[in-house]
Design brief:
About 30% of the residues lie in helices and about 25% in strands. With about 80 residues, the chain is of the alpha+beta class. The protein has a domain of about 55 residues. The strands form 2 sheets. The protein has a two-stranded antiparallel sheet. It has a two-stranded parallel sheet with strand order 3-4. It is globular.
Length: about 80
């Protein structure tokens, strides 16, 4: 199952049950003159709720943009105490 929704501006969120981190990391390549900054977050490693998951992915995407764009960044793992 894959669901994609447009969030705001140029941001799109994709939800999937099956995640391949190596494939996601290869995605940040230029396509037809465009670049892709991708933030990746997973349950329950990076978040415990849908809201936390979106925030973690958004923060990872911002880190990708700050690092020079056209990159893939993973969210920081959730610290559970």
């Amino acid at each position: 199952m894959v669901r994609a929704t447009r969030q705001r501006g140029d941001e799109t969120t994709v939800f999937t049950r099956h995640y391949n981190s190596s494939l996601a990391r290869q995605t940040g390549q230029p396509v037809a003159g465009f670049t892709l900054s991708l933030g990746v977050a997973t349950l329950p490693t990076d978040a415990l709720s849908a809201g936390q998951l979106l925030l973690a992915a958004d923060n990872a995407e911002l880190a990708a943009k700050r690092a020079g764009k056209n990159r893939v960044c993973a969210a920081d793992p959730l610290v559970q105490g």
